[in-house]
């Protein structure tokens, strides 16, 4: 996990483009990790990196398109890893449900399974939406 700090001087120096190709690539990698791995919103990422929110939103949209198109830069591996992790969690919880456990625990596990299912569906919808509306 990478931790990013807000540097007030850096924010004063640069809040918008134009960015060099190298700066763009570094920013896109940072945005990808912060959004997809750590679940941070575009607004928060913009504040953390000292970059315009619209730039961050575009980076996130491009990342969804890259994921959907299975381009190696952003990671078919990441998408596969996330889906595998969610499916593994779901399977473990279903195995626990097969045992005799208290009703309270059963309800909590069923709630967790539903949350996992919604997470999988949400990921797929986001990728498909990016594919439909982003002609990149």
What does this structure look like?
With about 140 residues, the chain is mainly alpha-helical. It has one domain (about 10-135). Helix content is about 75%, strand content about 0%. The protein is built from 6 helices and no strands. It has helices at about 10-15, 20-35, 40-50, 55-70, 75-95, 105-135. Residues about 1-15 have low confidence and may be disordered.
Topology:
Blueprint lengths: L7 H6 L7 H17 L4 H8 L3 H16 L7 H22 L5 H31 L3
Helix pairs in contact: 2-4, 3-4, 4-6, 5-6
Name some characteristics of this structure.
136 residues, mainly alpha, 74% helix, 0% strand, elongated, disordered N terminus
Low-confidence blocks of residues:
1-13
What is the average of the pLDDT values? 77
How many runs of DSSP E, i.e. beta strands? 0
Largest sheet: none
Order of helices and strands: HHHHHH
Q: What separation lies between the terminal Cα atoms?
A: 29 Å
**Structural class assignment:** mainly alpha
Cα-atom radius of gyration: 19 Å
Please give the count of helices.
6
How much β-strand is present in the residues? under 5%
Roughly what percent helix? over 70%
Q: What's the structural domain tally?
A: 1
Shape: elongated
